[in-house]
Amino acid sequence: QVQLVQSGAEVKKPGASVKVSCKASGYTFTNYGIKWVRQAPGQGLEWMGWISTYNGNTNYAQKFQGRVTMTTDTSTNTAYMDLRSLRSDDTAVYYCARDQTSSSTDAVDVWGQGTKVTVSS
Amino acid sequence: SYELTQILSVSVALGQTARITCGGNNIGSKNVHWYQQKPGQVPVLVIYRDSNRPSGIPERFSGSNSGNTATLTISRAQAGDEADYYCQVWDSSVVFGGGTKLTVL
């Protein structure tokens, strides 16, 4: 079945970086882009960016420009999200999610299980 | 930047119809998607492109979009429908509404 499996929870100190992985299975990885969305405790969904798994093109939310890098490894069908200079307000659950179609403007229909990132000194 | 406005909470009696709105400037010209997120769970797509249901989503869930308001309608509401609901559009980037908590009484 189609699924996205993310890496495990992380605890980081302020100023550090975190890299979350998202391994896809059950479909042709390069046919659908990946979006990254985060959710702070008790808060709503926040879009971080998108990556084309076909050619690596990215589109980052302005808020995260310069601090986030999204990449893919098509040999392992894995997407990665690297967030640098972590602050306490980066504490959140980070999700990867698959585009429903080949268009990045469409909905996402498959979500990873989420990766909890805690930033604390 | 584009903004989506959702009411914080909506209550509905068991078996009645719940309507959750999502406001945005000329939202009727955009494709609206809706996600359901139950406590402690991952979001689930329930409506895409205004009014389409993914496979596995009950027919009780429907959507509409016109003018400045998109609406998610849940007919014959069940206890299991209690969740946060988020609308989402694309406007040069992904935009989420703030979410609406649905309580079934």
Describe this entry's structure for a reader:
The complex is a heterodimer of chains A (121) and B (105). With 121 residues, chain A is mainly beta. Helices cover 0% and strands 49% of the residues of chain A. Chain A is built from no helices and eleven strands. Chain A has strands at residues 3-6, 10-12, 18-25, 34-39, 46-51, 58-60, 68-73, 78-83, 92-99, 108-111, 115-119. In chain A, strands 2, 4, 5, 6, 9, 10 and 11 form a seven-stranded mixed β-sheet that branches. In chain A, strands 1-3-8-7 form a four-stranded antiparallel β-sheet, with no helix packed on it. In chain A, a hairpin with a 6-residue loop joins strand 5 (46-51) and strand 6 (58-60). In chain B, strands 1, 3, 4, 7, 8 and 9 form a six-stranded mixed β-sheet that branches. Chain B has a three-stranded antiparallel β-sheet with strand order 2-6-5, with no helix packed on it. Chain B is globular, with a radius of gyration of 13 Å. Helix content of chain B is 0%, strand content 45%. By secondary structure, chain B is an all-beta fold. Chain B is built from no helices and nine strands. In chain B, a hairpin with a 6-residue loop joins strand 3 (33-37) and strand 4.
Concise overview:
Chain A has 121 residues and is mainly β. Chain A has strands at residues 3-6, 10-12, 18-25, 34-39, 46-51, 58-60, 68-73, 78-83, 92-99, 108-111, 115-119.
SSE blueprint and pairings:
The complex is a heterodimer of chains A (121) and B (105).
Chain A: E1 3-6, E2 10-12, E3 18-25, E4 34-39, E5 46-51, E6 58-60, E7 68-73, E8 78-83, E9 92-99, E10 108-111, E11 115-119
Parallel strand pairs in A: 2-11
Antiparallel strand pairs in A: 1-3, 3-8, 4-5, 4-9, 5-6, 7-8, 9-10, 9-11
Chain B: E1 9-12, E2 18-23, E3 33-37, E4 44-47, E5 61-66, E6 69-74, E7 83-90, E8 94-96, E9 100-104
Parallel strand pairs in B: 1-9
Antiparallel strand pairs in B: 2-6, 3-4, 3-7, 5-6, 7-8, 7-9
